[in-house]
């Protein structure tokens, strides 16, 4: 099946050993699987697309003893049935990529629920190692697990681990090396007994599929037989049979399924699930002992407050408000230091290079463009720090739970809130996360409103304008913008639900993991993973965009050799030669021509042509809006060391600033988001709707704010 194992071999000490091992990391959501993956692989990670379904999958490389271990972090899943995309992806990896070993990460305090997945992995006949994670919590809760006995009953190594602290990692790698090198006698695989009647029919199907005329050697026969009895269409599609042979096998399986249903008065799928849970229960009766604790657990006591029907939402909003206050308040100090460094660098470059295109390119294009965005890196760090703490502590699941009632107004449920919260970081992975939703209706509706959740790329715009025009209330202004984005998402979601998605939402049960104290290592790792994307944009799209904008603003040069006056488009006389101001030069350049072209569409919003061009560049990436302003406005007033001063001197008012921030909040986040919506929806129609409604909503909201403000005398 799939690739052949043991592709790379080397001779070490006279013995042939497998030098490269493929290992999959499986487990339930909230089992600490990804934390353990990060602990094992460190910085040796890469993210690739899963072939055929455009799913991002993390792989990491570990070097242990004589082995190079390729570790793949599979999506969190409760089973490997075919209900959700995550389940299909995990199962396809095992069947098609043929890992040498699967490490299943089990949440120790909730071991019984986690072991159901183990029973399914056993039937796929892949070598298994059980990582009994969060073992510190097992001890704290008075639970005793006889790991050696459990290992014997399951037929696999059972290794206690504490992923967030790196405990048990070495023993886990030792177990991988032993299984791969066969340095000890492998344990006999466990066989789950489904009763005399079922076992007889399972054997009957196995004999039929193993008959030479059927030629079905690709997948484990027992797993195939069980799937056929359960009526799993995915299994039948996987069988390598001719149409005639497939029909004969399927007819046989249908007859067996009907017979067993009539005999036991229960659907075979439910019966098989019950037997698996019975196997798990029997194994734990011999190995698991829980010492009763008095009173409620800490998690239950905290949940009584945080998930309270009345207090839950106010607490959520308070935590969000606190996060944005910290994002601006604490971030302004390192921002000042970075600004000083950029000013020093700009002055140094100006003193080294003579006046000319090279100096302008470096100072106005490179330093002015990229520097105007990188100064907001501390704010981005603080925002991601807060989000990482909320995620790692277990609160983010509670946020989805308390918003479940609100999401019902959209015809959705709390599970949709999870990718929406991810949208605060970046819209692209948030849209990809809609795969966790079971129905296409839920996925489409959620991905259409995710772009209204303000991503981190917009944060530099808010900080720039709020810090410039509302310095004493910047945190509150930014918090208000995020709330306004959520409000718009609710309104648009309800509208689209009524217009395009009439069917109700799917039923949903949210798992609430235990609260945990986040570790510094885990928080820093998650924060750095997100910030790294931001920094990559600095050296990529923002750098290229800044240099392109500089070029468009610098060329073509206005004719000034004759010394005669020039007439601009609005009829004013512009002096030539040395007296020509940089703002006038911009108007004659490509950027000015583009600005005049789009100016009629942004004038009703109170924006000048430079603001219009900056917003247009934001279709590529929102960070480019600020870098565009850094190029355009510093070009007008090069004596100003800060972009904030240049914006104030340009005549922008607080009312215009609010309209500009709201427009930036609501219009299409970036081309990458558009591409993600197209890939995930597979529809040009839904992608076009996303672009059109967001741009229209942004223009309308900014128009109402600016024109309404003028009527009220706020302009």
Number of domains: 3
For the residues shown, what is the average pLDDT? Answer: 77
- Which structural class matches the secondary elements? alpha/beta
Uncertain segments are 1-17, 49-54, 561-581, 635-641
Number of DSSP strands? Answer: 13
Task: Tell me, briefly, the overall form.
Answer: elongated
Helix content: 55-70%
Radius of gyration, CA atoms, in whole angstroms: 30 Å
Strand order of the largest sheet: 4-5-6-3-7-8-10
Give the oligomer, counting copies of the same chain as homo and different chains as hetero. Answer: single chain
Name the beta content range. 5-15%
For the largest beta-sheet, the strand count, sense and barrel status come to: 7 strands, mixed
Number of helices: 32
* Spatial separation of the terminal alpha carbons: 70 Å
What does this structure look like?
The chain is 60% helix and 9% strand. It has 715 residues and is α/β, with parallel strands linked by helices. The chain has three domains: 9-181, 3-Layer(aba) Sandwich (Rossmann fold), CATH 3.40.50; 196-263, Helix Hairpins (Orthogonal Bundle), CATH 1.10.287; 314-498 and 513-559 and 583-711, no CATH class. It has a seven-stranded mixed sheet, sandwiched between helices. A two-stranded antiparallel ribbon has the order 1-2. A two-stranded antiparallel ribbon has the order 9-11. Helix 22 crosses helix 29 and helix 30 (654-666) runs antiparallel to helix 32. The longest helix is centred in the C-terminal third of the chain and has 35 residues, at 520-554. It is elongated, with a radius of gyration of 30 Å. The protein starts with 8 loop residues before the first strand and ends with a helix.
